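Session log. Operator J.P. requested a structure for one protein chain; no other inputs attached. Running the standard single-chain path with token output.
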Amino acid sequence: MRHDRAAAADDQRPEQPSLLAALDVGGTKIAGGLVGPDGELLHRVQLPTPARESAEAVLATVHRVLDLVAEHPLAAAVRAVGIGSAGPVDIRRGTVSPVNIPGWRDFPLRDAVAEHPGVKGRPVVLGGDAVAMAAAEHWRGAARPYRNALCIVVSTGVGAGLILDGRLHTGPTGNAGHLGHITVDLDGRPCPCGSRGCIEGLASGTAIARAAREAGWRPAATVDTAATRDTADASAAAVAEAARAGDPIARQAFDGAARALAAGIAATATLVEIEAAVVGGGVAQAGELFFEPLRRHLADYAALPFAAGVTVLPARLGTDAGLVGAAALALDAPTADAPTAAAPTVDGR
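Structure written below.
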């Protein structure tokens, strides 16, 4: 009889928290959301980042996003919070120094989030935004079938994260896999990171647009004057449109970017024997205009048998990757009796 009463009491206990809260911090927007234990994004809010304002103003926006997440009826079921931030980051200290948020240098973001009333008492896990993307794609996206993969974001910059032996490998500070700052052109142009000839300076959307302009490409304008050239769309997306229309300079700009990225993927494959490279970000939206030369150049650079044959895939999660990946970082945060789902384990060794 006592056993039956104990079983009945167990049935009446409230369910253990099972959701994850996520925060995605970038120079353009700060997003927050709720993610289920299976990786489904259940709720999303977003505010613009006051990137040129004070550190306090940016933090106030983070807190407002957290307020909005906490107002959702499901928020009480949150067991941990994950943060994916533009970097560099330092996961040991919980700090961030985003290049595109000048007011934050060694900013203690993890502690600042942990002090929010809607977060207090819950574990908070910090990671870089590209590492979060890798966690998301391994959990729910294109990298899911692979135990060893490089997941790359090619946008205004170039970032990446590594999946090694089925685990997310962050490195001690959280910056392992930072592909964008591998040198592939020994005599290349100086990079803001302090080196030169970095992949980011050759393969990013910014680099594609610059390479096209320097080679003589000009965006289409109704009247070809200095004024219209100044206001016409000279972005990588405009270069992609011109390339699809057959412009040889625009096509060469994409080919050069793909070649630089292929060299970086081949170097990674040689070092750690990855099986797949998953590519997302704005430049990947160019589709085969970018992926065809990327695969072709990769076949040239990854020549050794153990490095050859890397599968190149487009990322699947799109704009959801930041929040899903931030949540994935917090999956293994230690909470009592909390359910978990199969996903990459953060490995900082």
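Operator note: The two ends are 51 Å apart (CA to CA).
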